[in-house]
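Subject line: Sequence and fold of a protein, written as C-alpha cells
Enclosed: The protein record, placed directly beneath this head.
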Amino acid sequence: MSARGSGDRVVEAVGLTKVFSDFWMRARAVAVDSIDFHIDRHEIFGLLGPNGSGKSTTIKMILGLLRATRGRLQVLGHEPDDVRVKGRIGYLPEESYLYRFLNPLETLDYYGKLFGLDRATRKRRCGELLEMVGLHQVAHRPVGEFSKGMARRLGLAQALINDPEFLILDEPTSGLDPIGTRQVKDLLIELGRRGKTILLSSHLLADVEDVCHRMVVLYGGKIRAEGTGDALLSDTGRTVIETSRLRPDTVERVRRTIAESEGAEVESVHAPRQRLEDLFMKIVEQARAEQASTSGALHGGRVAEFLAAEPEGRSLVQSLAESKAEPVRAAPVAPAPAAPARPDLADLVNPQSTPPPAAAPRTAKPEAPKGPVDRGLLDRLVDGEGGGA
C-alpha cells in the first residue's frame, strides 16, 4: 500500500461492486466483486486480467458510464458522474470510434471544441499531437482510409487534446506495430515523469511491466494480486549471475564451487538472448538510416509542448483575452453611384424651395418654371387625370 494520504489519490475505491441484472432485477453476473484499490497522483497504474475479469467494467465505473451497485468510488475528489471531473480526464477506449470522413486535423479540432479550447490553442495542439504520434504526413487523409494501427495513434492524440490531469488508456497498443508499441510505452513513461496520472489496462503483460509503477491483477471480478512490479515479479527461489563470456573450464570450476559450497547444481549455462522487440527496432532504425521510404505512420516526434508543462491554471477571462484574434480589415469598397433625387411634393407646391442636388443627367434638364404653379394641373397629376395631357 502507498504511504501517501488520501488527498493525493486520484481514484479511491472501497468495496466496489457491480452486479448486472436481468429484466426482473435478478442478479445475472457479478462483474466486479467488492474490490479495494487506489491510484495515487503522478503514478502509472496497471489494471491486468484475462477477458471477463472486470477490467472494462471498472474503467466504465471510474468514467461514470456505469453506476456501482455497492461500495464507494471517488475520482479526483468527486463522484464519478460529477461533470466537474470530465474536462480533467482523457480516455482512449478499447476500440477507436472515429468519424471516417474527417481527416486527423478535423478530428482533433472537433474534440478540442468539445473541451472548449479556443481556435489558436486547437491549431497549435493539433499540429504538435500529430507530429508526436507520427501522423503529420497524413494529416489531410480521411480517417476511413487508415489502418487499425494508424487509427489507434489518432485515438491516443484525441485522448491528449485537453491536456488531461488523469489519462485512462484501455488497450492502447492494440493494433500497433512494434514501432508504435515502443513509442506508446516511451510516451507513457515520459508523461509519468512529467506528472501525469495514468491508468493502463492491457492484455500485453510486457507493456504493463515496462511502464507501470503499481498494478493489480483481476480474475473473476476479484483482486488476486497487487503491488509494484518488482514485488510481484521477483523470483526469490533463484539466483542469476551475469558475467562477460567465460571459458568452458572456468564454467566447470564455477559448477564445482557452487556444488561444494551450496550443495546446488547449475541448471543451465547459456548466452543471453536479446528481446525480439529490440531486434525489430534495430532493423527499423537501420532502414531509416538508409532513408528507405514508407507510406505508413512514422515514428513520431517529441512530446507535445503543451504536455511538457504543468497546467497554468489561467482564468477564463485571461484565456479569452489571449485568444482574441486581430480584427480583420476589409478592403475599401467604392461607393455606389447615387440615385437621382426624386422631387418632394413640397418642392412642387412651393417653387421657392431649393431642390436637392441630383446627379448630372446625360442631357440638359429644362429649368423649372419661374411663375406660379397651376394648382388645378397639380391636382389632376396627383389624381391621375392628367395622364394623357
Observations:
- Residues 178-193 form the longest helix (16 residues).
- Strands lie at 9-21, 27-40, 44-48, 70-75, 89-92, 166-170, 197-201, 214-219, 222-228.
- Residues 312-331 have pLDDT under 50 and may be disordered.
- The CA atoms of residues 17 and 330 lie 62 Å apart.
